[in-house]
Amino acid sequence: MAKMNLLQAINNALITEMERNEKVVVFGEDVGHFGGVFRATSNLQEKFGKDRCFNSPLTEQGIIGFANGLAAQGSFPVAEIQFADYIFPAFDQIVNETAKWRYRSGGQFSCGSLTIRTPYGGGIHGGLYHSQSPEAYFAHTPGLKIVVPRNPYQAKGLLLASMRDDNPVLFMEPKRLYRAAVSDVPEEDYTLPLGKADVVEEGSDITLVAWGAQVEVVQQAAAMAREDGVSCEVIDLRSILPWDAQRISESVMKTGRLLINHEAPQTGGFASEIAATIQDKCFLYLEAPIARVCGLDTPYPLAHEKEYMPDHLKTYEAIKRTMNY
Amino acid sequence: MAKMNLLQAINNALITEMERNEKVVVFGEDVGHFGGVFRATSNLQEKFGKDRCFNSPLTEQGIIGFANGLAAQGSFPVAEIQFADYIFPAFDQIVNETAKWRYRSGGQFSCGSLTIRTPYGGGIHGGLYHSQSPEAYFAHTPGLKIVVPRNPYQAKGLLLASMRDDNPVLFMEPKRLYRAAVSDVPEEDYTLPLGKADVVEEGSDITLVAWGAQVEVVQQAAAMAREDGVSCEVIDLRSILPWDAQRISESVMKTGRLLINHEAPQTGGFASEIAATIQDKCFLYLEAPIARVCGLDTPYPLAHEKEYMPDHLKTYEAIKRTMNY
Amino acid sequence: MNDRNHLSKVSSTTSVNIIEDGIVDIPMLQLLNEDGELLKGAVAPELSQDQATRILKTMEYIRLLDERMIAAQRQGRISFYLACTGEEAATTASAAALFEHDMIMSQYREQAALAYRGYTTEQFMNQMFSNRLDPNKGRQMPIHYGDKALNFMTISSPLGTQIPQASGYAYGQKLQGNDAVTICYFGEGAASEGDFHAGLNMAAVLNCPVIFFCRNNGYAISTPAEEQFAGDGIASRGIGYGIKTIRVDGNDALAVFIATQQAREIALKDKCPVLIEAMTYRLAAHSTSDDPTGYRSKEEEAKWRLKDPINRFKQWVIGKGWFDEAEHEAYITKSREDILAAVKTAEKVAVCDIDDLVNDVYDTVPWHLEEQLTHLKTHIKKYPDNYPKTSAEVK
Amino acid sequence: MNDRNHLSKVSSTTSVNIIEDGIVDIPMLQLLNEDGELLKGAVAPELSQDQATRILKTMEYIRLLDERMIAAQRQGRISFYLACTGEEAATTASAAALFEHDMIMSQYREQAALAYRGYTTEQFMNQMFSNRLDPNKGRQMPIHYGDKALNFMTISSPLGTQIPQASGYAYGQKLQGNDAVTICYFGEGAASEGDFHAGLNMAAVLNCPVIFFCRNNGYAISTPAEEQFAGDGIASRGIGYGIKTIRVDGNDALAVFIATQQAREIALKDKCPVLIEAMTYRLAAHSTSDDPTGYRSKEEEAKWRLKDPINRFKQWVIGKGWFDEAEHEAYITKSREDILAAVKTAEKVAVCDIDDLVNDVYDTVPWHLEEQLTHLKTHIKKYPDNYPKTSAEVK
Ligand SMILES: Cc1ncc(C[n+]2csc(CCOP(=O)(O)OP(=O)(O)O)c2C)c(N)n1
Ligand SMILES: Cc1ncc(C[n+]2csc(CCOP(=O)(O)OP(=O)(O)O)c2C)c(N)n1
Ligand SMILES: [Mg+2]
Ligand SMILES: [Mg+2]
Questions:
Q1: Which CATH number does the domain D49-346 belong to among 3.30.360.10, 3.40.50.970, 3.40.50.720, 3.90.1150.10?
Q2: Which chains would you list as touching B if contact means 3+ CB atom pairs under 8 Å?
Q3: How far apart are alpha carbons A133 and A115 in whole angstroms?
Q4: ipTM, two decimals
Q5: Would the CB atoms of D361 and B102 count as touching at under 8 Å?
């Protein structure tokens, strides 16, 4: 065990896998010598050579296109997109190529060995273009897996699992926790399961679902609600695609209430999928409408960031509204 | 009044607007001399000159980037993306630029005058890359409007409204109706409102929501259900963003049941947003879970297209399930 | 840290020096004249009789296949087809210059390269009839071939995407010490996509052994090259990327062969990309959905028909004394019969199992697709007449 | 229909002619030596005393602003800043060569161009402090300026997106008969984006009067130019697009001025794009979030410090007898005071009304945003302490 922050846990996972599998190749803008603008790839070039860890030219569509080819060839690319806000030039390569490669070739070829890492999310005074949470854009794409860790321990285990999973994984890192979240992380190799939600706190009155940096926000709200005598079950979804509808249903059948929190704008956000599925699976169990506490339907603002964010207070209020419905 | 098919109605709307507003400029791949691969822009170059209707090089990101600049400059670009499946290289320009331009500049500049036209949808033996319905990818993007006509009359009125609306509009044309749908279309100028759903058939037992080519599929199912004595209210959503939640709520408060049908894969499709919103707004009125009849969560297939599609029979069965819940 | 100086190679001037198009002459390599005779001064590449006749036969086979499949499409037997008439030499001779373990990543008009590799008539048909013998499991439109055993990457429709992918593929080959290159085919239209820029630049910077093979056939559907770019074709772009570039007469199989052979050698030896621009002409309609009379004249087509790449090469092969008329006739007749027979066979083969609707989305079928499949099967059982392709198996 | 022949201009050869990088020499226009003296044979552009001193003052002002704002960021007064130290001549002198009604579309390191246009210290501060006087309404990170009155398009962070946009903007100017061009600034890093390719190619084909102005400053954050591209800088790409191209010493204000002036003339007269590559060096850190010691040496920086563009131009202005030491000192002192005062003023100005969180998403506020805003206001009223910037107004 060692104390690591989220960046160190990621760096540690990358080193672990690069040592284990010499076909792992790490690249992206500034990830080489410099180790990435957040330093998640520090020392990799030094340790594994310039062939296996290098800067790419400044082109996200190129990075993912290149990574797709490399994956289809049999290597294990780990491509970094510097900010999730800049992943959109690669949208075609991800949605039309990465995701559909196996299917369209009848399983002859695939990008299963590809992992795309990208920092996402707000709360860092980043404004429109350093704050977005684009998971829902990708969640509508069969063939992709989407994984989001909430802390360093989860990050290492989930990233190792993602790199080994035989499907392309979009691994989204909550950047406001990069240095803020510190926890004990085993130095040895371990993986955590993809596609499985994680019950962070058990409870009986209402189920609260979140992922990434919002898990702790929801926990804060749960603590406030506990003071009022409300027992919250807090679940970290961890995998957005495919997601663990079973675990959420079980919880909602027990609690009768569901709240989902995410940073992205509400309309078309992933909370809508969860709500649509759970109202279907748990119709007779629901005692109140499923609540969504999300970002506003605006571009991500700067001066009004605090007002925009689905914080613990908004979550707490929504818990109360749902309890009192 | 003249009988027109959907393509002719679109062509007619373009001519009407190009005559009225000399700042309208139409371009895209093959739209010039040839008139587009579906011939929606036939004769425009002849009528209005090569400056106002022209072929662009083969680059969707360039087409929309160019169109964004042209819109910000004060012209009225109507950019065609040859198939909606090929809109993804332009995703960054649409989602990060078009949609956020007004907001990020505090209203100093905008792409309000831009219209993006694109044929979408399946049922034409097009397989993975000539069949997609990507509306949900865009519906998560504040700042955009998304409009889908269901027939020639709607197409002309909605396209004219889209070109005049001071917001960027993604105008999605159901290509399997291009020649199949024929109706009476006024030759004069008229517009239909954006953001408003259209009640196609009134009914009292269940509300059926669809858009584009699926409206008639849902109507077929409604006819079958009518035989069983079930009265369906069929609503064409018409605008996906912003959408008419009020009209749908009113209907569901009356019928107590809701079914949404779309071609796109179910997970993260726009039906999830509708379901999430309506379960909240109409919780106490719902007598059964909101049903989604959608494409499967796979890439769009070819040999199994019929099996994949949310056809009238699947819709009819879902109506029965919902009625018998 | 070594000091860097991005100006070190730049000379200077005190007069405003405007670099204009046309500053570089990029001539086109041509070895055979239009009658198939070696041009003065031209040296033919080393090509065995076997290779030469295999190239010739492949070209003739493909022309036949194209004709037959266009007819099959007209008869409504397949939904779509796309011919490469006029461009047979560019794709066949380039494929012939490669090794079998080199990867081919194509656009869609390179069926001749696939045929040269040994794809059989049956295989072509199974793909085009989307039947259960199609390795793509009937999921893609006709002509989207792919074959792992032949190192031919499955085609995908979005244009240009294969270009950066080819760079990545080649990088992997290099990294793993394979003595192989990747060839990446694309049209001059697709070269306008952003992915082209990304792919070529990355290959140059990251030293990828990839051959970028552009078929400049004058058109992208209806859009003529002059509305596609303003520079000197695609070759002139090589300069900007610092990529070694060869322009070649795409209707001259000999020239294409030697250009590709040399490109391959350079790519492997110097670990770098090479760009080839093959000047040719799309004599065919863009596809069976297209009608070129809307955008070009019959006269223009007629001029190019005179440059027929097959006849040109055939004359050369005849000149070499390698051509056996009888054997040839037999081959063509046999091929025609094979094609007709294969059409009849392939169209009778059933489509894949319904399970293949959800297989291969992921490595294994996840819970939600299991659920959707189960649901679908129940539904099909209820309405067997409406799902004739699959109802039999879900009884 | 006219017959087309995409081969008409192509010559032919029988030998395998490999076009290599370095086949064209693209020299760099330089008029002043590093001491600010006119080089032998160089002819200075016509530049009035007023223009020259305005250029000089703008450069000095911007250097000062950069220094002060980096300090302000260190003090935690603003969250982010990005300096253009070392590149002042490239942006100032190019802006000086334009007309006021020409549109400027910039990347983010062109504050000098904006200052030259007349953006005031107060305006800079309002943007950087995201206060209610910021025309962007405090929605974007510091340095994302924009000003409609000055024809300076609001900056957006995604790199390269402004390149095809500038082509479109210029096309609109041409179509409406405005006697104006668009200048589009970008870094050599951004030139790797697919949008660069699309923008330049479209401008060339569609005859857009746009000046593509690349600041090749050797780095994209930590990535040196040699890991960004393998060709001869960005200028060599002009050839591939058929775009007239000028390479210029970006640290020589005179050279930049004349190059841009000529580019503008060509663009307007010939209705076509012109590419300028200005060779310079990013002496600054990439931004206040960056620390260049991780990727380059102090020695390298020191070498470039000797090429300081401000001093060089200043010496020339002095040589012309146009420099008044006292006036200059006064200007600098006054500017420093203005900046300090403006910081103090701007940081006290409140942020925009809460309504501006939902304004400008659309032309008018749609129902769902009205709903969300109402809801938010109720919430803020309940927890005023947690939303200190806005609670006062929703009481
Ligand atoms: C991204 C994308 N945009 C548009 C299309 C539609 N499309 C198919 S082929 C084609 C023309 C391609 O021309 P070119 O690259 O020159 O190849 P050629 O057909 O001449 O062989 C177009 C526009 C597509 N398949 N993909
Ligand atoms: C699409 C996109 N990708 C990545 C980034 C992150 N980023 C910001 S600046 C920068 C480097 C830009 O270098 P260059 O274009 O040379 O301009 P310079 O900073 O040298 O002026 C990067 C990678 C971005 N803003 N947008
Ligand atoms: Mg072509
Ligand atoms: Mg730079």
A1: 3.40.50.970
A2: A, C, D
A3: 18
A4: 0.98
A5: yes
